[in-house]
């Protein structure tokens, strides 16, 4: 039975132009972070099947299934693009592997803990991807950097859930992380994902967890922690923005775009959450904050109207 989050062929076809553009932007981002002297000649027929599936051991011994795709032209080692997903690593075969390997980059596509071919539990989802006791994102970066096909320069990519794994990975990441491309991904799980404005986000939180057949313990934990506490602090990359070292491109939503196009040089967080500390605050574009409402962007990158 196909997984509920797998797209139909028609929907995949509709999404391909968007994702190819995103992939090209990502490749440009990584190219800045790697040696400009290295010449990369695109392949006419890049492979779309993984060279090998590795079970990469995390610091607690849990192995995560990771497909590695290598270019069919040139000689390694290569810079690497990493995508970590709860939706099934095999989806990279549809188009992304071709786009990445065809430009001379290796690709690592990984099932998150407790998802598809990776054992363990996915509860609490995304919690193992950050800077707490489990650091699946950091461990994966370190493993990639040690492989003979990797030149030690790694960029991460992904939208939505794949973007959340990047935001969680960013604080305190190993130096081998050179750049990130994050699309429409929350950066404060409590305020943006579970309890926006203090109210449960039923469709986003409960509906999504049910759709991907996540461990029921996820929703039970969300309901127990209805106020901002230490658990949510450990899932709030914004609070750790000062520990982020790698540059990133963020694709946000409509509110962010309206702010920038209006000529406002500051983003205003004007919706403090009941049950959590803090008050409305202004975020300057240079302060390094993360997310769709508090981000680090340069206005000179926004096209004129």
Please explain how this structure is put together:
The structure is a single chain. Helices cover 28% and strands 18% of the residues. The protein is an alpha/beta fold. It has a 7-stranded mixed beta sheet, with helices on both faces. Mean pLDDT is 77; it is low at 1-25, 27-47 and 256-305.
Question: Secondary-structure map with pairings?
Answer:
Layout: H1 9-33, E1 52-57, E2 63-69, E3 78-85, H2 96-101, E4 106-111, H3 136-145, E5 150-159, H4 161-169, E6 177-183, H5 189-194, H6 202-211, H7 217-224, H8 230-233, E7 248-251, H9 254-261, E8 267-269, E9 281-283
Parallel strand pairs: 3-4, 3-5, 5-6, 6-7
Antiparallel strand pairs: 1-2, 2-4, 8-9
Briefly characterize the structure:
With 305 residues, the chain is an alpha/beta fold.
List keywords for this structure.
globular; 9 strands; two-stranded antiparallel sheet; 305 residues; 9 helices; seven-stranded mixed β-sheet; Rossmann fold; alpha/beta
Spans of at least 5 consecutive residues whose pLDDT stays below 50 are: 1-25, 27-47, 256-305
Distance between the termini: 48 Å
Shape: globular
- Count up the domains: 1
**Radius of gyration from the alpha-carbon trace, in angstroms:** 19 Å
Q: Give the helix level as a range of percent.
A: 25-40%
- By DSSP (H or I, 4+ residues per run), the number of helices equals 9
CATH topology: Rossmann fold
Class computed from helices, strands and strand pairing: alpha/beta
Strand proportion: 15-25%
- The average pLDDT is 77
Strand order of the largest sheet: 1-2-4-3-5-6-7
What's the CATH class label?
Answer: Alpha Beta
For this structure, the quaternary state is single chain
């Amino acid at each position: 039975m196909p997984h509920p989050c797998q797209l139909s062929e028609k929907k995949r076809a509709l999404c391909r132009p968007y994702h190819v553009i995103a992939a090209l932007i990502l490749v440009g981002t990584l190219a800045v972070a790697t040696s400009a002297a290295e010449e990369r000649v695109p392949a006419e027929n890049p492979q779309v099947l993984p060279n090998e599936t590795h079970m990469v051991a995390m610091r607690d011994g849990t192995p995560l299934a990771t497909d590695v795709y290598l270019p069919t032209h040139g000689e390694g080692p290569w810079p690497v693009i990493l995508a970590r997903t709860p939706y099934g690593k095999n989806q990279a075969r549809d188009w992304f592997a071709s786009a990445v390997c065809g430009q001379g980059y290796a690709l690592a596509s990984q099932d998150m803990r407790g998802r598809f071919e990776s054992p363990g539990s996915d509860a609490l989802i995304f919690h193992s991807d950050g800077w707490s006791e489990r650091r699946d994102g950091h461990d994966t970066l370190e493993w990639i950097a040690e492989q003979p096909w990797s030149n030690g320069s790694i960029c991460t990519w992904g939208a939505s859930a794949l973007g959340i794994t990047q935001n969680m990975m960013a604080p305190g990441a190993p130096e081998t992380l050179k750049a990130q491309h994050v699309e429409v991904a929350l950066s404060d799980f409590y305020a943006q994902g579970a309890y926006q404005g203090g109210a449960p986000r039923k469709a986003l939180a409960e509906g999504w967890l049910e759709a991907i057949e996540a461990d029921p313990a996820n929703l039970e934990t969300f309901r127990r922690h209805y106020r901002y506490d230490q658990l949510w602090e450990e899932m709030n990359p914004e609070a750790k923005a000062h520990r982020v070292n790698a540059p990133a491109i963020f694709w946000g939503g409509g509110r962010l775009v309206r702010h920038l196009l209006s000529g406002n040089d500051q983003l205003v967080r004007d919706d403090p959450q009941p049950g959590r500390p803090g008050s409305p605050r202004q975020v300057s574009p240079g302060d390094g904050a993360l997310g769709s409402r508090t981000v680090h962007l340069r206005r000179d990158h926004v096209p004129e109207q």
